[in-house]
Amino acid sequence: MVNTLNLGTLLLVLIGRVEPMYIYGGKEAIPHSRPYMVLLNMTSVNSNKPKYCDGFLVREDFVITAAHCTASYTKVKLGVHNVLEKDVLEILVEKEFPHPNYSDSSFANDIMLLKLEKNASFSNNVCCIDLPHTANEKVPKNCLVSGWGVYNNATAGGSPVLREVNVTLESENCSNIHEVLSLGPNGPLVGDSGSPLVCNGLAYGVVSGGDWNNKYYMCLSDYLDWITDTMMN
Fold first, then answer.
1. What structural domains does the chain harbor?
2. pTM score over 0.85
3. DSSP letter string, 113-173
């Protein structure tokens, strides 16, 4: 069995910055305590694309995720805690809106809006999360990330239940490529792409990529105009 340290080192050496893989170092979330969380079940003609990503509901008919989570067919699952639950809301994605300046080689502008085929019905288990209120807003340093990805190196598949972990950002200021960073193994790695970086109850970021020691999140405050214009039009 490959131990945790060797697994992280191998990922870093072989592929450098990769799509996030799992919530590592966290715990199971209280069931349905993160009603904005969305599980994406994806089908793509490109076998190298991920089959599962996460996202978060920001309006009855729109989900935000990472742009590299594009697929030819996506179904979103809302109100999920355990992925084996039967009584969850499933809605097809009508259209993808990746950021027009997204680069699948550098992960620049790795953010995407998903227009749902119909509006989600809000309940105790399903509702949206608010975004930062102003452009270029500083990101609080202490935040939370949730996801269903693989959570330890002995597990072949993803976690059956939603897990979460606290992360501390290196800076409150977004970089010139619209990112913030957290360091260390705790946090998202491969499989939690598109999850929200939640700070003080608001979604300040989107999980984009990382390796064993570095986790990158796109700054949502830098994209507020694009998000608003896309959803309105």
1. 18-28+130-222 (2.40.10.10), 37-128+226-232 (2.40.10.10)
2. yes
3. EEEESSPPPP-SS----PPPSSTTPPPPSEEEEEE-S--STT-SS--SB-EEEEEEBS-SS
